[in-house]
Amino acid sequence: MTRARFIVPNAFTSLNFLLGVASICWSTGLFATENEILGVAYPAVMGAHFIIFCALLDKLDGFAARKFNASSEFGAQFDSLADLIAFGIAPAFMLMFAYKNIAPSWYEGHKLAIFAGSAVYMVCAAMRLAKYNAMDSDSYPDYFSGMPSTFAGIASAMSIILLCKYDFFNSCPETLYIPLVILLFTGVLMVSPLFLPKLKRRKSLAINLFQLVNIAGAYVAGFAMIWPEYLMSLVLIYFVVGFSYGLIKRNAIMNDQAAKHGTEA
Question: Which of 62, 99, 121, 189 gets the most CB atoms within 10 Å of its CB?
């Protein structure tokens, strides 16, 4: 029974890993057909939805690990490997093949920039995950140091979904830079020293209710593949408000951490 409690969180991590692989396969056209699947016309858009599925499952494996008291070093390393696939490699492949298949002329003229941006993003994601495991996992219990790879992946996935939904790839060519800029920007944010508050229970009942309602809404919208505008607005609000708060409180956060280390020492 002692070992059995590890099954549920590791099952979520395994599914997260496999869906990340599925995202790559779908984005590259491995499962492409001439017909729409689940209402999705472009393979890269389905790949983007798989990344969102991965993000939702990634939060569930952490919840399950805490609920079943099943946290372990193995689970932490396994989760990081799954995250590297789902939020490090899959978004880059999704972006490259979205340009290649949906805007082939633009892709041919910007191939080097697309590859370079994707490479920077993947390296930043790998560095972010390695740094978190090595140094940051217990350093700031209430904050992320840098953008989590989960949210970086979601931001890139949502940019592709929305541009395809409103046909900006064909009707508004000047917007074609947006997904690449988002990919690079979130890549840099992953390895930045900025602080982002974690979604945790707060003292304020209103804040807890707001978080709970929107988390539930995100799971419904994400798994049902609906309301992409709502999901993108949640991500943007969280980034803008969260990083701004982290900047304002930066000195206090650093001082608290220094005091904690001094006390423990």
Answer: 121
